[in-house]
Amino acid sequence: MMRRLRLASAFALCIGALAACSDSNSAKAPGGEGGERPPTEVRVVVMKKAAHSLTTTLPGRASAFQTAQIRPRVSGVIKEISFREGSEVKAGDLLYKIEDDTYLAAFAQAQASLRKAEASVPTAKSNLARQERLVGSGATEIALENARVTLLQAEADVAQAKAALQSAEIELKLTEIRAPFEGVTTASSYSVGNVVTANQSDSLMTLRQLDPIYIELTESSVNLLRLREAIKAGRVNRENNETADIRMTLDDGLEYPVVGKLDMSDMAVSQTTGTYSIRAVFDNPDDLILPGMYVRATVNVGTEEGYLIPQLAATRDPNGHLTAKFMTADGKVETRVFDHSQVSGNNWLVASGINDGDKLIVDGFQWIGEGAPVKPVEATVNEKGLVEITAAPDAAPAAQP
Q: Where does it localize (predicted)?
């Protein structure tokens, strides 16, 4: 029993000696002196002040550039439907044909009435001329005046007949319902043989023009007031006080290749939502955008002098303020808080709190705390917000033989 206790005590003494040797070697190892962690390698971007565009992303819906509810202007029976449902038609193309027998008869009757009225004019003119020759040889003034009235009545009958003929011709032409503009048709609500009436409440079909197309956007009135205040203070520059261009992202996340323009903006704010409407117009030659589609538009609202902080390198504190981590001159991590920031593409634009040459940590900051030592590797951030290394890290010294 005593022998076993001696062996156990000797084994414990050996383990303690080995642990002490290990701690001593660790204290002497490079980079481990005093228990300090080696600097963490991080990607940094060197800050430089410049003029950058300010952007805002707004939700919106697409709507047709023009919409027409096609209705008949004369009554009758539909004789022909000349378009293919859901197809494109040109301005002036025939859409519907209404039976025109009665309208042809009315037109012929109006033509006959005009010829009859015109036939009485020469007789009235001859009678007036004769009375004028006889006025000094016993003809009375009453007969002369009656001849003048008769001619005037004959000429008025001609004018009335011409108007009736024109009206009959218009109604005859209205039996052909044509497209008022170029667009895409919907399904027809009526078929051949259906009876329609003039100016009925139900439309025959709907015609929509999709190229160009409108995008209805909504913006907060608070943002509008902030923008106007920034413009008045001189922080934001806008050329001609107009929005330069508008870019659009479709519902599937793809960017629409065409740049749109501001068409109009409402001069009133909604009482229910506190927003105001902006309408943009985009070319849509391939009919890629359809009415009712949900989109997001990035609007360029002006330019401002400042520094760009990529969105991937920034966070928000509990108060909603923008925060980012920088590397100090002595190679330590420093967190800065910014009270005011603007959107510029995939970046935040900050006008104060940064100086030229400051190094913003854009990658690797998630695992380092305040005051931690870091080793910088210069990088850039491309338009898509991805970090690209521009300077390779220093190579480790070669081992001495």
A: Cell envelope
Q: What is d(CA 313, CA 333) in angstroms, rounded to the nearest whole number? A: 14
Whether residue 344 sits in one domain with residue 222: yes
pTM: 0.66
| Judgement on whether residues 254 and 368 belong to the same structural domain of the protein | yes
285 and 251, same structural domain?
Answer: yes
At 147, the pLDDT band (50, 70, 90 cuts) reads confident
User: What value does the mean pLDDT take over residues 332-354?
Assistant: 87
Number of domains in the chain: 3
Q: Give the strand pairing for 314-316 and 322-327.
A: antiparallel
Element (H, E) at 80: strand 76-81
Could you tell me if 187 and 274 lie in one domain?
no
Q: What is the pLDDT of residues 170-207, one digit of tens each?
A: 999 999 999 999 999 999 999 999 999 999 999 999 99
Beta carbons of 198 and 98 less than 8 angstroms apart: no
The answer as to whether 8 is a domain residue is no
CATH of the domain at 157: 1.10.287
CA angle 192, 196, 198 (to 5 degrees): 145
For 239-268, b where at least 16 C-beta lie within 10 A, e where not — what string?
eeeebbebbbeeeeeeebebebebbeeeee
State both tokens at 74: 């004369």
Tell me: the pLDDT tens digits for 1-56?
444 444 444 444 444 444 444 444 443 444 444 456 688 888 899 999 988 877 77
CB 357 within 8 Å of CB 376? no
Residue-number span of the structural domain to which 129 is assigned: 100-174
Residues 6 or more apart in contact with residue 211 via CB below 8 angstroms: 65, 283, 284, 285, 287
| CA-closest candidate to residue 218, choices 161, 289, 273, 157 | 273
Task: Tell me the pairing of strands 374-381 and 40-46.
Answer: parallel
The C-alpha atoms of residue 298 and residue 278 are separated, in whole angstroms, by: 12
| DSSP assignments along 318-383, one per residue | TTS-EEEEEE-TTSBEEEEEES--EEETTEEEE-SS--TT-EEEEESGGG--TT-BEEEEEEEE-T
Residue 73, pLDDT above cutoff 80: yes
The helix/strand/coil state of 32 is coil
